[in-house]
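Lab channel / #folding
Pinned by the channel admin:
"Please post every new chain as: sequence first, then the structure tokens as a reply. Keep commentary short and put observations after the output so the thread stays searchable."

First post following the new format, from NK:
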Amino acid sequence: MSLTTTQHNILVKYLKDVGIGHQEPFEEFYDHIATAIEKDKPEDVKKYFREVIQPSFGGVQGMLDVVNEQSKIRRIAILKRAKEIFLSLFGWPAIGFVMVSFILLQTLSNRFDEKYVLIYAAILGLFIPASVMMYGVFSFYKDCKKQQLPYRANDLNYSILLLMVIPFNALSIVGNLLIPIFIGRDNFGQFLTAYPAITVCFSTLVLLFGFTCLKLFKENFTFKLEMI
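Reply from TO:
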């Protein structure tokens, strides 16, 4: 037995009204509730939601708590996987990529001012990965809209984008607040000129961060709902 069109439409509207808008939790809740409907065969689906489904999760808030907990678990898993990917770059054979990146940046540092090295690293390690991810988010939204799916966002994409925001915020705080107040832009510029290796090492880490995020973007982080 499968859901009728009417049951499907009622279930979709119910989940949207509850406030479940991302793909992963929406599909998990849909599959769980649809299976329960097929098993219990309720005559009044709306009443079934109120009297059976909602209490099983502790009410609407309980359902949202499950969604939030699932998102939290996914974010932790993403950070853990990001750490694994990043550290794996310093092992064989990925260390070759690190060495090539370092040598390339070192060559740029010898020929150009340190700020250009930083700009180059920011473009390759931050702006290009962020642009690729934004395009992925937009494509996902467009595909969902074209297929008339009940959601437009993906929790995985959103979580990785939040990860990408961290370096942008950190650079903004350091560059626009900490350095001008505690060090001074001129003094900091002279420091980088005197120690170009610091610029090269930092820029290499930025490139590796961007590579890590791009690789994360291709992976799946799926978790089954744990029912109350």
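NK: Residues 114-146 form the longest helix (33 residues).
TO: also worth noting, The chain has two domains: 1-57, 75-220.
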